[in-house]
Amino acid sequence: MKKMMLSQYGDVDVMHLVDVDRPTPADHQILVKTTAIGVNDPDIAIRAHGPFPTMPKKLKPVLPHSLGQDFSGIVAAVGSAVQRFAVGDHVVGMAFMHTYAEYILLDDSALVATVPQDLDLIPLGGFLLGTATAYAATIRDGQAQAGQTILVHGGAGGVGSQAIQLAKSTGATVIATGSAQQADFMQALGADKTIDYQTQDFTKLVANLDLVVNLTGPKTLANSYQVVKKGGRITSVNALIDPIKTRLRGITGTYSKGMLSVEELNQLVDLYRQGKLTVPVDQEYPFELAAIQQAHRDFQSGGNTGKKIIVFQDQD
């Protein structure tokens, strides 16, 4: 089988495809034939600069290694002790740092869920990471509820597009920031109002918010405390909360991590099945080296609306 590997960090040309033996699952493992994977921020950052300094030691990859987190596929083989999955099951899941491969080997206790076989697996390849992060920031930590007014920063990206939908599903009023070109896209996802971050100052347009979900950087976060009402909440996924500012303003701040239980994943899959949650696909790329490199270039260029998905061709 083919697998994308890194032997050093840097520009897209450090990625290369190798032929390796297809793994055989042990008693408590499953082997998934990969259908599609999402291109995500960690792929770009780790490929370019190596593991994040804040990563726990046990999670830090060591060269040579692959990339990738979320995936969809079909179970190709199961170990003798596996009960949760069967050959032929359609699944979505997470496999930290090794989804850029035609087959993925996982423990049967991994964050994987079956999905109905009538669902298209291609968009589901980019479902889990963005949805998990959005769920943590919006529902679990943000405690979004009906009647609230919620601001989502970076509403057009892979995480933001999910955060808008999740916030809207609670019955909240949703405001989202993005570029003017992304406004129609964010409104189609459920945003009641959009703010052009390039030409408008959100601090002059909104106030007394119940929740701010920051999916951008530290500068936006620093300016967001002032628009949250006393007793409100602010969550952030890529910039640390300032505990002094939250305490002075009487608000709750949480640095959100997209860690899900299998039960939570099944709940999100059910929302997807009901059509209450979708994965907007920006562009698809075949699992070929030049196309993978281009997917990384396109992601880095910014202005993303939805997910970039790498799609695997049928293989023996």
TrEMBL record:
Highest taxon of the lineage: Bacteria
Subcellular location: Cytoplasm
PROSITE patterns: QOR_ZETA_CRYSTAL
A UniProt-annotated Pfam family: ADH_zinc_N_2
InterPro entries per UniProt: ADH-like_N (IPR013154), ER (IPR020843), GroES-like_sf (IPR011032), NAD(P)-bd_dom_sf (IPR036291), Quin_OxRdtase/zeta-crystal_CS (IPR002364), Zinc-ADH_QOR/CCCR (IPR051603)
PANTHER family referenced in this protein's UniProt entry, alphabetically: QUINONE OXIDOREDUCTASE (PTHR44154:SF1)
Protein known as: Oxidoreductase
Organism: Levilactobacillus namurensis DSM 19117
